[in-house]
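The passage that follows is intended for readers who have already worked through the single-chain material. We present the inputs for a multi-component assembly, then the predicted structure in tokenized form, and finally a short commentary. You are encouraged to pause after the input and sketch how you expect the pieces to fit together before reading on.
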Amino acid sequence: MNKLNSIGIIGLGVMGKALTENLLEKKISVSVYNRSTNKEKHVISNFISTNKHITDLKGFTKLLPFIKSLKQPRKIILMLPAGKIIDTLLKSLNDLLINNDIIIDCGNSNYKDAKKRSDFLSKNKIEFIDCGISGGQEGAKKGPSIMIGGKKTNYIKIKSFLKTISAKDNNNLSCCAHMGGLGSGHYVKMIHNGIEYGEMQLIAETFSLLKIHHNYNQIANIFEEWNKTEHSSFLLKATINILRKKNNENTHILDTILDEAKSKGTGVWASKEGLNIASSNSIMISSVMARNLSLNKTLREKMNLKRNKTDNSINLNSLKEAFIMARIINHHQGFQLLLKASSLYNWKMEISEIARIWTNGSIIKSNLMIELIRLMKKNSNILKINSVFKDLIKKEKSIKKLILFATQNSIPVNCYSSAYNFWISVTSKSLNANLIQAQRDYFGNHGYIDIEKNSFKNYNWH
Ligand code: 6PG
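Having made your guess, compare it with the prediction:
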């Protein structure tokens, strides 16, 4: 009889291949399936022929033999783009799988789809797990950060192999954990990506400010200095490498790339989620907006205005302080969003554990993330920790200077501005929201809280 394999992978795109290689490397036998239509005709045959020495690997272009090649209860990982393609596939799998088989959706699916999909499969007692994976191709191959949602009983059934293939933290613990009920794995990944967008945009804005008086090599050197300290991060390292890359004509690769930033959805979903649950995730929202603003290059070229620049360059110490401050606020906003969602959706998330599994494998791994584990064990709202609060008070002047410099040089700093506005708002006893309440009451009779009488009322404005 043919030997049955331990794990099935559906979808042999870049991430599917990398995850398969990771599993095989850990001596876990794998069956892979990919459709063989049009451009994907040779995906399986090519992959199998490049790995023909590996006996633990089988490839299929038909679902039934793929399913039959797996040990029961089957564990099948979906590595597919978010959307309809997954629902179509689940319909076919629903006819072929049986009681207790488990499907693990490891793509960047919308968290709201998890419950719907699980309900659909549960009629045939097929189990469904939503799973966020971070780390890109390299992470998937060498060890990603893994965020699991769904029933704890299902998590227990799959955790040993997921922990084996995941990244390890500083204490050699797996960067893989159960987040909460259905949808929570994809939810946490979505907010992870919102933070990722913020981090990327903050680096990009810092780059724009430096670019006025520094060349790419000098900027890479400045970032390299920062990256040697406790402020290092994967994204900063990636940016240093990008800034240094040149083609054969000695042109920076960066200068050959159209400056229109695209996205695949998770950053927008994360931003919307903050708006939906009234969380202050302004940095991720601003980073999506900055991408949107970049989109119409042709129009920007037509409306291009030449503006004066200052003779003086930005003070590097103060720039670094502002960068550190904005990053702390970006992470704080993301984690506060998660906390609010966790209590709203009853997920009972352990917030410092989420930081822990993002310290390796993840695109947003950094020294700050390691520090956040310690801080959030003290208080999940890090701004309430005296030392953090005092540190940000000291850095406030740096972010002010940055915004002034950006204004003088007409450089858009969407995320830095959001960080600054957030900071001065949360540290202001009085805001103008009483005027907003008055306006709402004036034209819409919406009512307000009378602070003198401590009661809710309407005023007869007219
Ligand atoms: C990760 C990344 C990854 C994400 C890309 C693309 O953690 O590995 O978040 O999952 O898909 O970064 O995102 P955008 O195309 O939306 O920028």
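Commentary: The chain has 19 helices and ten strands. Residues 306 and 410 are 10 Å apart (CA to CA). How closely did your sketch match?
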